[in-house]
Amino acid sequence: MNFVIISITFLLSTLVSIYIKKISKSKAISMWVAFGLNTVILISASWLVYYLDEEAALFGLAQTRFSILLFFIPVLTWVNFIILQFIKIEK
User: What pTM value is reported for the model?
Assistant: First the structure.
């Protein structure tokens, strides 16, 4: 389940940040969009899993495997930043 959520988040944030970079021609804006999108999706998924999973609600999010979603926010953002370095803007 975590792999699916992380993969979808990575794919979606990469595609949106590349699209924003091509439209605005600004790498900084696309990096902030990638960070914001990763943060919103992964925190929302963690919150949703917390309320749907009885074990997480009983023992807390840190005791389950779903806390890994929060640790992937900087990892996915860093990988998006590296990918954005190789995208060329056509003028």
Answer: 0.81
pLDDT tens per residue across span 24-40: 888 889 899 999 999 99
Please enumerate, as own/partner, the contacts of 7-16 that have beta carbons within 8 Å and a separation of 24 or more: 8/41, 9/37, 9/38, 9/41, 9/42, 9/45, 9/72, 9/76, 10/76, 10/79, 10/80, 12/37, 12/41, 13/37, 13/38, 13/41, 13/76, 13/77, 13/80, 14/80, 14/83
CA–CA dist 87, 82 (Å, integer): 9
Distance CA 56, CA 2 (A): 14
Tally of CB atoms within 10 A around 49? 20
> Using N-to-C axis directions, what is the helix angle for 27-52 and 68-85, rounded to 10°?
160
